[in-house]
């Protein structure tokens, strides 16, 4: 486990850690939003990574749904990137996002097949103004997700992610852009690449999660159902 210190400098916040970690995820403290995230740096192009960061409340009860905050920082040539909370494309919440001008759009998706994932109301997002931005190299969003940690993994079984340990995640991305970037129901091209990792939730625990959500939520950009 490595500790990455956040600073208030925009460039430093968006800086991505070189992919030299022995473990899949590292701790990232974001002084802008106040959350402590567990971060995975997904390999993108040579010398580039996409940072997927998750923050959860301390003391969440195993087996019970809980909220999570997701923050993603992606190079500007990423057309869209997505996170699969159950570690596969099918039957779990897909958090798909892309840049939109100086901001970003988050799109809630779900699919039961390896085909275009449709909008999903089982997970909803509040996109925070703080921590959602772009600069000359990266775009980034920060959002609260309700419905990402517990989901219908099959018609007979609900899966709840372990708040105290590692969960298998998957990412996917494409350099192709969505057809209508200002809309969270836009279509987008199939992925160029996908892969899996183990994301540690224990080190993503925030004792002050509720107050941090309230602080950042008061400045929410949009609500995505
Ligand atoms: C345009 C939308 C999409 C299409 C048409 C699509 C299609 C497919 C297809 C056909 C496969 C089978 C393997 C292959 O041929 O490479 C696959 C696999 C996969 N896709 Fe997608 N996909 C889309 C979006 C997404 C999104 C948004 C995610 C995650 C956020 C995702 C994650 C994955 C993963 C992790 C796999 C590996 C197999 C699995 O774990 O289920 N895909 N996709």
UniProtKB/TrEMBL annotation:
Identification of the protein by name: CBD9-like protein
Domain Cellobiose dehydrogenase-like cytochrome: 28-209
Keyword Signal: yes
Organism: Delitschia confertaspora ATCC 74209
Span of the signal peptide: 1-22
Pfam families linked: CDH-cyt
Annotated CDD domains: CDH_like_cytochrome
Keyword Signal: yes
Keyword vocabulary terms for this entry: Signal
UniProt feature coiled coil, ranges: none
């Amino acid at each position: 486990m490595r500790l990455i210190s956040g600073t208030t400098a925009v460039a430093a916040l968006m800086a991505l850690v070189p992919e030299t970690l022995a473990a899949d995820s590292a701790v990232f403290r974001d002084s802008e939003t106040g959350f402590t995230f567990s971060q995975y740096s997904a390999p993108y192009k040579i010398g580039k990574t996409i940072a997927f960061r998750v923050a959860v409340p301390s003391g969440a009860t195993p087996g019970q749904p809980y909220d999570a905050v997701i923050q993603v920082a992606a190079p500007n040539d990423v057309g869209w990137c997505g996170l699969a909370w159950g570690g596969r494309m099918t039957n779990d919440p897909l958090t798909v996002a892309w840049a939109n001008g100086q901001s970003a759009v988050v799109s809630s998706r779900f699919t039961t097949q390896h085909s275009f994932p449709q909008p999903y109301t089982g997970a909803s997002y509040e996109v925070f103004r703080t921590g959602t931005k772009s600069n000359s190299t990266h775009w980034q969003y920060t959002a609260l997700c309700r419905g990402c940690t517990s989901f219908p993994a099959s018609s007979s079984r609900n899966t709840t992610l372990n708040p105290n340990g590692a969960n298998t995640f998957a990412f996917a991305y494409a350099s192709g852009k969505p057809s209508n970037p200002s809309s969270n129901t836009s279509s987008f091209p199939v992925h160029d690449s996908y892969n899996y990792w183990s994301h540690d939730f224990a080190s993503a625990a925030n004792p002050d999660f509720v107050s941090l959500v309230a602080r950042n939520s008061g400045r929410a950009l949009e609500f995505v159902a």
